[in-house]
Amino acid sequence: MSVQHQSSGEHANTPLLDIRNLYVEYLTARGPVRAVEDVSFNIAPGEVFGLAGESGSGKSTIAHAIMRLLRPPAIITGGHVWFKGEDVLDMPSDELESFRWREVAMVFQSAMNALNPVMTVGTQIVDVFHTHMRMPKDEAYDRAASLLDLVGIDRQRINDYPHQLSGGMRQRAVIAIALALNPPLLIMDEPTTALDVVVQKEIMQEIDQLRAQLGFSILFITHDMSLMVELSDRIGIMYAGKIVELAAARELFDNPLHPYTQGLMSSFPALTGEKKKLTGIPGAPPDMIDPPSGCAFHPRCSQVQPMHKQVVPQLREVAPEHFVACHLY
Ligand SMILES: Nc1ncnc2c1ncn2[C@@H]1O[C@H](COP(=O)(O)OP(=O)(O)OP(=O)(O)O)[C@@H](O)[C@H]1O
Ligand SMILES: [Mg+2]
Predict the structure, then answer these.
(1) Is the CB of 33 under 6 A from ligand 1?
(2) Is 26 in the pocket of ligand 1 (CB under 6 A)?
(3) pTM for the full predicted model
């Protein structure tokens, strides 16, 4: 794992991933669920971009759209997903397998259970090298051992079966498999929720060190706002399928503008504090089959005015690199 990704020179300002006006619906028996609506953001080489928002706000749907993993009843009704200048949504299906391993790898929600229980961890990593790089078994085995070292698992554990590993180690093994082919983008969708807070934090900090060392970018999805603020360069806040605020992590933490973001930010005490249940936002997220008119957040907003119930707020830059979709600004 000594290869460094290009993060300097002429490509430095070109985003690695550039999502433009993405729309995704789920066609359900009750009607279409507008899960993602007009979402745009980009991720630079080496950048950690956080996506935050309550359950059902559309985070995983975006991740699956990037990976081209959406299946009916999901349909992408508009937009582009540019990756290194190519629209992933137009990519021929025979290129997808290679795209998913070499360019973008994903650690899924509840990834701890993603390992094959009847194969050793080593064999599962060797398989990736063998299948995708046609690497001879001996060499692949050496690489697998190095990869285990890299993610903090003793290489002696290479012949262990998943059940012989702790939850944290299984999580690390899944991350090792995702990183096997050195993809420039790693998507982590709630990667560590099943682990205790301390282990969660430790693993994510180590991943961040690896990122600094190897230069890959991360799309990081989590409900843990303190971890998100700590690890992300920029954060997009999602509400009811839309990005309602986007800014540098520190700026968002110090100066949240959207009342929803203010609620999220006030529901954890400090960057280093204990994880706490969200208490800052009254009410529940809307039913996405019949979302509220105007600003979708208006039924829960303490600063709502009559006009907010009719007019949809647009995402606008209200301070340098700080975007918000709220009528108050
Ligand atoms: N297969 C499906 N069929 C119908 N609706 C779906 C399907 N998958 C997701 N949805 C709906 O799409 C919306 C977005 O879901 P998504 O899973 O992307 O949210 P999320 O932000 O990842 O939530 P969580 O934090 O709980 O993982 C929700 O309203 C959800 O109910
Ligand atoms: Mg999700």
Answers:
(1) yes
(2) yes
(3) 0.92
